[in-house]
Design brief:
Number of helices: 5
Order of helices and strands: EHEHHEHEEEEEEEEEEEEEEHEEEEEE
CATH class of the domain at 307-412: Alpha Beta
Strand order of the largest sheet: 3-4-5-6-7-9-11-13-14-15-16-17-18-19-20
Radius of gyration: 30 Å
Strand content: 15-25%
Number of strands: 23
Shape: elongated
Structural class: alpha/beta
CATH topology of the domain at 307-412: Leucine-rich repeat, LRR (right-handed beta-alpha superhelix)
CATH superfamily of the domain at 307-412: Ribonuclease Inhibitor
Largest sheet: 15 strands, parallel
CATH architecture of the domain at 307-412: Alpha-Beta Horseshoe
Helix content: 10-25%
Distance between the termini: 93 Å
Length: 464
């Protein structure tokens, strides 16, 4: 008769996952070889036990929870802890720093104020997450983490002490957003792994980034107070400069960004754009909304790969002829400007245009406008147009909308309030003649490279 023995092996014993059940056949010649913990497990287990015993004195651990921690630490070289005050964490550092084999350390969402000066002893770390703590400074020993690939320091109170980053040769991703940095410098010609840096929502006035990394593709420095910066990153593809109202766009900026494909320069309050923007020959998406531009530079004519252009909320009185050279343009947003006409040349030149937004402009007529062959959507809300040409009266084109707007307004909105507002006279109280206002919150913190800036749109509907 076959005899089956069911064993449950706990990770706290030899590093297996919690409650792993094995069915072992002991009949005949099927006797299993004895399970012997690997030398790696034998070495890691006592140090892990010491750490977990200390952790248990701070917050009691159920056996299953302890097993889970042990498995992650021993087998996955990973530790994740959150919800601890700085004083409680002080008791953990000594035993934690003994686990030098850790590769992934996640200490986000604690209340850490200081890191131990010997944290650099964790030389096998590849991922370090210290986001959303209360850190005001960083120890110099972090420069010893030669294998570090990702570091997340977002949501702290750092105002200096991040120069060590340029010494980390394996670094790929850096997140320093939501801190209090005033200056940032990164100059590394021998880190060929860098991919992304986020410096959004600091108090930065000066930024210098020089990188020879062929993989450095994304830089986010939105929502700062940058007055000047040095940027030399030939491999950069995505740059977000939005919401830096003190920034001067100097002509030499674009000359060192030959591979840029996505550029966001919205909410800079810029009054002019240098012709050197034409050196961005690979640009595919450009956002220059919420500025004070009266005209587009002639250099725009060289951006023949451009597919999306957002130029809403500027001071354009005419559609620039420079746009006619952008024959690959698929989406064009010229809403909330001062346009009075929609020239026929626009539709003749932009054969690939699929989406056109000219809402909230004082355009009175589009009777001479010929629909581009690829046009699918046109937004005419907030114009003075009362009649559509036959070319726009087809089932293949979505028109928004001639039902509501009979007057035009151009309003500059605040950029920190993330709301869409709709004012409708249809819901007004006839006795006091007041329009009702409904507010809808918008999810605008997505991954889009050109829509990262918080914006407001207001659609005014009237029944004049």
């Amino acid at each position: 008769m076959r005899k089956i023995l069911l064993l449950t092996l706990l990770s706290s014993t030899i590093g297996y996952p919690p409650a792993t059940a094995l069915a072992l056949d002991f009949s005949g010649d099927n006797l299993p070889a004895p399970i012997v913990p690997s030398p790696q497990t034998q070495k890691r287990k006592p140090l892990t036990d010491t750490f977990l015993n200390t952790l248990h004195t701070i917050t009691p651990l159920e056996q299953e929870q302890r097993n889970s921690y042990a498995f992650d630490i021993i087998n996955q070289s990973k530790l994740e802890l959150s919800g601890f005050t700085d004083s409680k964490f002080e008791k953990l550092w000594e035993s934690l720093l003994q686990m030098t084999w850790l590769e992934d350390l996640n200490l986000a969402n604690n209340e850490l104020i200081l890191l131990p000066p010997t944290i650099g002893s964790l030389t096998n770390l590849k991922i370090l997450n210290l986001s959303h703590n209360g850190l005001t400074s960083l120890p110099l020993s972090l420069a010893q983490l030669d294998k570090l690939q990702e570091i997340n320091l977002a949501g702290n109170n750092l105002n200096q002490g991040v120069d060590f980053l340029q010494n980390l040769k394996s670094l790929e991703k850096v997140d320093l957003s939501e801190n209090k940095l005033v200056r940032f410098s990164y100059n590394s010609q021998d880190n060929f792994s860098l991919q992304k840096i986020s410096l959004a929502r600091n108090a930065l006035e000066f930024v210098e980034i020089q990188s020879a990394s062929p993989t450095f593709g994304k830089l986010d420095i939105q929502k700062n107070q940058i007055t000047s910066f040095i940027l030399r990153a030939p491999s950069l593809t995505h740059l977000n400069l939005s919401d830096n109202p003190n920034t001067s766009i100097y002509p030499a900026l674009f000359e060192f960004l030959p591979n840029l494909t996505h550029l966001n320069m919205s909410f800079l309050l810029a009054e002019e754009m240098p012709d050197t923007i034409g050196s961005l020959l690979n640009l595919e998406e450009l956002d220059i909304s919420a500025n004070m531009l009266p005209i587009l530079p002639q250099g725009m004519t060289k951006l023949t790969k451009l597919k999306k252009l957002n130029a809403e909320r500027n001071h354009f009185t005419d559609i620039s002829p420079h746009l006619y050279a952008l024959t690959n343009l698929v989406s064009l947003n010229l809403s909330s400007n001062e346009l009075s006409t929609l020239p026929v040349e626009l539709s003749i030149s932009l054969e690939n245009l699929s989406n056109l937004n000219v809402s909230d402009n004082p355009i009175a007529s589009v009777m001479e406008f010929v629909s581009p062959p690829a046009l699918k959507n046109i937004n005419l809300c907030g114009t003075m147009i009362e009649e559509l040409p036959d070319g726009l009266k087809t089932k293949d084109i979505t028109v928004e909308s001639l039902e509501t707007p009979l007057f035009w307004r151009n309003i500059y909105y605040g950029k920190d309030n993330n709301e869409y507002m709709t004012i409708s006279d249809e819901e007004s109280d006839e006795e006091d003649d007041k329009s009702s206002i409904s507010v809808f919150h918008s999810e605008s913190e997505g991954e889009s490279d050109l829509s990262d800036t918080d914006q407001k749109h207001i659609f005014l509907n009237a029944n004049d």
